[in-house]
Amino acid sequence: MESYLTLIFLSSVIRLATAGNVRLVNGNNSCAGRVEVYYRGEWGTVCDDYWCLRNTAVVCRELGCGNTSNTMRTAHFGPGSGQIWMGNVVCSGSESSIFNCSKLEMGEHNCGHSEDVGVICSGIRLVGGSRCSGRLELPHGNTWYTVCDAAFDQQDAEVVCRELDCGAPVQVLGEDAFGKGDAQMWTQEIQCRGDEYQFALCPMLPSHNCSHDNDVSVVCAEIVRLVGGKSSCAGRVEVHHDGQWGTVCDDDWDMTDAGVVCRELGCGEALSAPKGAHFGEGSGQIWISDVLCIGSESTLMNCGFNGWGVKANHTEDAGVICSGKLSSSTLIS
């Protein structure tokens, strides 16, 4: 019964990935993994330079894998071998194939396999807080479901935070901490081991009835923060990568990029996108530069950018001023 219920859930999120010249490799299923393309009789990888959420959306749609979840950079699914076929890929988001996106000539790139890009196609979400905190909702068919807090534990939260490309889980909250959902209730008990790549891979068991008074919420550690301002919604933009925090170069930094940061942090709207180390110079790594967001991304890491570890000066550290925390986010501040 357990495996049967798991398959029901999987069928709503994951479909067989077969697109002939595109595949995802080394994930736990055919809708997660390192992006590889077939060209001149050989499979090769794709460089993560300027890769953004629109590119991920094209790959997920091309493979029949449903909604976009995350872009995974720096060989998250392991480095490939052989050719790196594509570099500087820029999609509008409407293309039927990644081969139709703008890119360098096939085989041209400025990458090593340590920069092979990967994607995870999925659909879970956290609602009512920020991208990395809120009421947990998951899809089944065309309907979103809220999850009961009964038996939901740290191992389940580990998978949620990993799939959403957030930091480690900080809290699991019950009793509608981020407000009562208006979606249907998920009626199965979730039993993740904690090491799954996707929530859809967790075993499901029959559960008792539950009401929206018991909606579960998850708070994950953010991987983007604002430092040096007078509040947590204003400051120098820093991102967490490879175990350490680093800054963002202000080349091409604009209000669209700032808007993504504010929304990711649950900080309302962007009021300003100051440049030139307005909030003071950071230290250590300058992780990314030339950020290019379209504005609809759920995280700065899903925008196009040049990185990781760029040659720049901390006098060019980018900053953001947001309108302020959303009311539901004050529950965890």
Strands, count: 21
Percent of residues in beta strands?
25-35%
What is the CA-based Rg, rounded? 20 Å
State the helicity in percent bands. 10-25%
Q: Would you identify the regions where 5 or more consecutive residues have pLDDT less than 50? A: 1-18, 327-333
Q: CA-to-CA gap between the ends?
A: 41 Å
Reading the helices and strands in chain order gives HEEEHEEEEEEHEEEEEEEEHEEEE
Q: Helical segment tally? A: 4
Largest sheet: 7 strands, mixed
Mean pLDDT: 83
How does the helix and strand content classify structurally?
A: alpha+beta
What can be said about this structure in brief?
Helices cover 13% and strands 30% of the residues. It has helices at 2-13, 53-62, 154-163, 255-264; strands at residues 22-26, 32-39, 42-46, 68-72, 84-86, 118-121, 125-130, 133-140, 143-146, 169-173, 184-185, 188-190, 204-206, 217-220, 224-228, 234-241, 244-248, 270-272, 286-292, 304-307, 319-322.
Topology (elements, then pairings):
Blueprint: H1 2-13, E1 22-26, E2 32-39, E3 42-46, H2 53-62, E4 68-72, E5 84-86, E6 118-121, E7 125-130, E8 133-140, E9 143-146, H3 154-163, E10 169-173, E11 184-185, E12 188-190, E13 204-206, E14 217-220, E15 224-228, E16 234-241, E17 244-248, H4 255-264, E18 270-272, E19 286-292, E20 304-307, E21 319-322
